Amino acid sequence: MSRTTLCIATRITGRGRWEVLLGEKLSGPGTGKIVVIGGHLDPGESPEEAAVRELEEETGLRPSGDVLHVANLTFTFPEQRWDHSTPVFLATGLEGRLRECEEIRPGWYPADALPLHRMWADAAYWLPQALHGIRIKAAVTYTSGSREHVVTARLAPLTDLDEPLSLGAPVPTTPRPAHHSGTGPSTGL
Which residue from 37, 28, 177 is spatially nearest to 109, judged by alpha carbons? Predict the structure, then answer.
């Protein structure tokens, strides 16, 4: 199982609008999808260090303070070799200048109108909860032969006893996907 990490960055604009930093994938698996910023861990790197590094490499922004561990995700893709375990971190204070890289075109999206229709299907299960401070762990299985359709999604509370890469035994649930919006990003910092 591959080890990856994600970093959810949020902000409140001068007009009081709550936004989340997401990126349009420009290359690799999921090209064209809107994704949470993240990637693989380098040798010897902690999940938190990797989340901060990936955020800076892909967007030009860096957390100005600590990041909070908000979720553990495990993704299973039957008959494919793409399974991965992913701790998720939340950053609320940022510094730097927003920029595009060859893999990601970052932009700010309204947190209350996530572009779930353009994201991986699993985002509807865990992202709204993580944004609202609900610490969770989730195990998501996609259909065999596809990286597009979720077969099962099991969620459970994430506790302080959970290690950043430990999922434990989640409780089966059937969450409803959040509202799909056509609202696009803003690109200013």
Answer: 37
Give how far Cα 102 sits from Cα of 27, 30, 78, 117, 169, Å: 7, 14, 30, 23, 38
Query: What global pTM score does this model have?
Result: 0.81
* H helix count then E strand count, the chain: 2, 11
Look-up: residue for tokens 């990936």? Answer: 54
**What is d(CA 50, CA 57) in angstroms, rounded to the nearest whole number?**
10
Tens digits of residue pLDDT in 131-167: 988 899 998 888 876 667 888 888 888 877 565 544 3
28: left (phi over 0), alpha (psi -120 to 50) or beta: left
C-alpha distances in Å from residue 41, one per residue of 66, 72, 166: 18, 15, 16
In terms of Cα–Cα distance, which of 157, 122, 154 is closest to 136? 157
Nearest to 9, CA basis, from 89, 128, 102? 89
Residue type (1 letter), 86: T
